[in-house]
Amino acid sequence: MNLSDINALVTGGSSGIGKATAQSITEAGGKVVIAARNKEKLKASAAEIGAIPIQCDVRKENEVIDLVEETTKQLDNYNVLINNAGYGTFSRLVNLSATDLESQLRTNTIGAMMVARETARYFIQQSYGNIINVSSSAGKKGFEGGTAYVASKFALSGMTECWRSELRPHNIRVMQINPSEVQTEFSENAGRGSRAFNETKLIAEDIGQTIVSMLALPDRGFITETSVWATNPK
């Protein structure tokens, strides 16, 4: 698609990959609504990158419904969803509570489903749209301590395949991106503490640029899935 024609909703758009993706879109001439829970941080990020802020907690169905409805009002031709909202918690199986697992799934999986569901209804009506789910290398391979996060991302991958099958007849491209470690607030938010910047590892802008490149492919084709890894991290 022509990048200047992008009218996108980016969830988890106030920081990290979401914010970087929204900025890449606005810099390419597109328009963006960013959604997140923290109102003040959301407004500050929107002002910085030239986006429209809409507060939303994707765990809450009524807020998701309102989010997509308001997005269709704010954007003349809503045509791109970047399903990015998510977080990670990590612990060994023997220490993992059902509550922690349920909470992880509620945001990363069920939240993504609800935003995609409301969006797909709109995209089907106009017979066009693009959905990109931001998964993770953790959605391709498990690791020690990753039960909750890995489960949420494996589930997202499975849903992506289902949506792709259902929505292709409506000219809706459903794609997925799997970043390896990206230097954002993710680690700190996961309770692992902040880490010193490492110039050999990925940054959020790398993923934002990749997402825009996926959208840039002419509409007659699409990249179903791509993974992004640091070349030689140290």
From TrEMBL:
It comes from the Bacteria. Keywords: Oxidoreductase. SUPFAM superfamilies: NAD(P)-binding Rossmann-fold domains (SSF51735). InterPro entries: NAD(P)-bd_dom_sf, Sc_DH/Rdtase_CS, SDR_fam. It holds the Pfam family adh_short. Belongs to the short-chain dehydrogenases/reductases (SDR) family. This is SDR family oxidoreductase. It comes from Fodinibius salicampi. The lineage of its organism: Bacteria, Pseudomonadati, Balneolota, Balneolia, Balneolales.
